[in-house]
Design a protein that fits this description.
Layout (H helix, E strand, L loop, with lengths): L7 H12 L7 H9 L3 H13 L3 E8 L7 E8 L5 H8 L5 E8 L5 E7 L5 H12 L3 E5 L3 E5 L3 E2 L4 E2 L21 H4 L7 H10 L10 H8 L3 H13 L3 E8 L8 E7 L6 H10 L3 E6 L10 E7 L2 H15 L4 E12 L24 E2 L3
Antiparallel strand pairs: 1-9, 2-4, 2-5, 3-4, 3-13, 6-11, 7-8, 10-12, 10-13, 11-12, 13-14
Helix pairs in contact: 1-2, 2-3, 4-5
Length: 365
Amino acid sequence: MTTESMDLTDRKLLNIVQSNFPMVAEPYRAIADAAGIGEAEALERLAELKRQNVVRQISAIFDTRRLGYKTTLVAFAYGDGDLHPGAIFINRHPGVSHNYAREGSYYNLWFTLAVPPDGDLATTVQWMADKTSAIEYRIMPTIRFFKIGVNFDMVKRRSDAYNYNPDAGTANGSGQQRIPASDWNQAQEITEWDKTVIRAAQEDLPLVSRPFDDVAGRLGLTVSELFEQLREYQERKLMRRFSAVLYHRRSGFHANAMIVWKVPPERSEEVGMIMAENPAVTHCYERPTFPDWEYSHFTMVHAPTRDECEEIGRNIATATGISDNLLLYSTREYKKTRVRYFVEDYERFWDSAEAAAAMAEPVGA
């Protein structure tokens, strides 16, 4: 499927499922009503969009840190011939949710890593580096969080990331506030029951008329009780929302740039807030600097072309007065998924032959 083959109804469906998937007994009927079509047609269209990997998954989105997981961005530098096998090996870890080869800097593989509450990030990264012959690596955890809100307006064909602060519930640029460090990364108490529900809610929702029936049944709950439990998780800020994840390249957003910025420490928060206001920015963080890496602010942008990514970068530079930046374009996507929480044994994935199969596709700019 190409973006040209999607009609307006497909695009409306994609806007609905990625923004606020309805937690009701018959969600696809509600989605169909909103799109002005019948439920059967909505299910058929979504099935085709999933078959073509435009829609990756429909499930609950949880807050990694509030579940007690430790998480970070990691940059690896590889020599010729080592990057691809290294990336495939790293993909085995269930806590690696995003893994990209990127051009534009010495570090040519960038991935996100989460480990369970009893895990150790530094030890895991060192082990990965040793096993894959990485030349150098940097661990870059979040210092300040300014924005996370991937959202592609499929009708207008532009990024429209509006969810600046999911914990505070701000949207559309109104009342944006930075999440205090003491709040956004604070782990909450998680019971064994919570883990059981989370394991069920993180699985891909089937394309059937009443998809929540099976989830609730496996938990010994009614559908209403399941929704009540999920709403409680939202109130506790453990769960952000229930929604679909799109494969942005197959959705028409072929260019993906991580723009990194050299920002004076005294302007860190001011500049981060300005960057987050740009609707083309889906993620905005401050991360640590190093002698060989002086870029503190990271903004993710997606657009149909590289030229448009560069225009977004120029707009951000004008708005902030910061011109020292690098655009790190992804050249290969090795993995993009959601972290699987509370799986029985993280370590078994390292030696699993099944887990070695990686989602690796060349990136077309």
